[in-house]
Amino acid sequence: MAITLEQLNAAAIPEAAQLLDGLYEHSPWIAWAALAQRPFRSLPQLKHIMARIVAEADRDAQLALVRAHPELAGKAMVSQTLTAESTNEQNKAGLTNCSPDEFARIQQLNTDYNARFGFPFILAVRGPRGTGLAKQEIIETFARRLDNHPDFELAEALRNIHRIAEIRLDDRSGTEPTLGNLVWDWQEKLAQHSDPGYAEKGQLTVTYLTDAHRACAQRISTNMRDCGFDEVEIDAVGNVVGRYKAFGTGNRAGVKTLMTGSHYDTVRNGGKYDGRLGIFTPMACVRELSRQGRRLPFDLEVIGFAEEEGQRYKATFLGSGALIGDFNPQWLDQKDADGVPMRDAMQHAGLCLDDIPKLRRNPADYLGFVEVHIEQGPVLNEIDLPLGIVTSINGSVRYLCEVTGMASHAGTTPMNRRRDAAAAVSELALYVEKRAAQDGDSVATIGMLNVPNGSINVVPGRCLFSLDMRAPVDAQRDALVADVLAQLQAICERRGVHHALELTERAAAAPSAPAWQARWERAVDSLGVPLHRMPSGAGHDAMKLHKVMPQAMLFVRGQNAGISHNPLESTTNNDMQLAVEAFQLLLNHLATETP
Asked: What does the alpha-carbon distance between residue 558 and residue 569 come to, in Å, rounded to a whole number?
């Protein structure tokens, strides 16, 4: 019989602890400590409480928890002494049916891992979908994590233990994240389309208006129609636009629209969730509304933006930019790496260039813009929270820079006579790191560093480098920029070298509209999930819409330390389920506010 939240809250602690026994392998102290914090508002809150108890435990307790788990395909499996839960999990991943080569490989990895870290390798083998990872994926993950730093790997083991506990709690409570599974499956199917040269390698790359890109648009369109959208179209820049109309088919005067969505293009060899999660989450909401025969007092416009990443052409936010009138006709003459002009690519895709100006939306017709996005960072993963409230999208300033000194013989030039361009930039790099850290949420990066025609026996006379500086408030960003440039000036004067700067980007910060941020907060709080407010260090389509209408974003936790723009980018069906439920609550709350 499935356990319920009411049972857990009402039962005596020993009885309730028995209901939770085995969620954490041979470690009942976690459930006992959690029950002291009753009543629980939701199962997600209970999961978070248990994770925080482990995080706040001392290192010896954490190591004991990790060591309570069996090796994968190890001695306990062979001797059939696994717990029932572990047996089920290893069965679902096929580890009880390994070939001799697979078994030998896993045994060697177990040996190597224990020798390096002193505890067994922990992996939630039922995976982010809950149905079990493929054996090859398990082996590849095992081998990859052998290279981790011991402290990081301990944290990664604990994160996987929390995922194991989450799945076990779902099993016991009869909880099935059906909408999270739906969103997961949509994303998996969309990821089948990839550009030539990458598809053959099993890599995901979808750049603007390639065959794969157009196939993605068609698949999203089909999914939208299946969900019950009233109108679905591919517009003049390739955006996929679905509209779910307000109740009533007569006089629509005064009916406003809530816009949402994200992009479906990817970086090269990227992940499956960046952008796409923000398309499919509201689509799942429309599907449920349609199945219930329910209408909202406003139109809901879900947009799969055709381009955000700037991978094929030197223009970004083509999809969302067109909706605010920010499409530069000169971009049409840009050529990709194969010499194909954007104009030709658009015409080949059957897009009508003359209609691009007509895409511009009238902000007066809109309530605002909201976007769901995978975090693309480690914060939510580290604090064991599935959702985060975005306070602002960081403003950024970027420069391409050059320091010029004097190239000279590395053996004959005394150290106090050198005008080393690379050393000057290296000194600046250390300052950049230190200065950005002073603000807490500012970031600064020298992502490119190059000594042209460098030689092992020559003091560098030139050094080319980039500067990328970001902060959630423009004034904070500008103070960071001023300090970094002043330091560059001082370093160059002291070292007798010169510098030149080319400003390549200045993007304003996009603070979340307070009312819309509050709506996300109300929705997340209604789920019983603790609130965490955070800036976004990455750029998003919401930055564009921010120029003409209020916007706010919801972040969803990423797995694998939150890595993004990488094939390891991932999230779980549970976290996607919560994102859909939060979006549903936002729509419901907004419906009560809208006349």
From this structure: 7
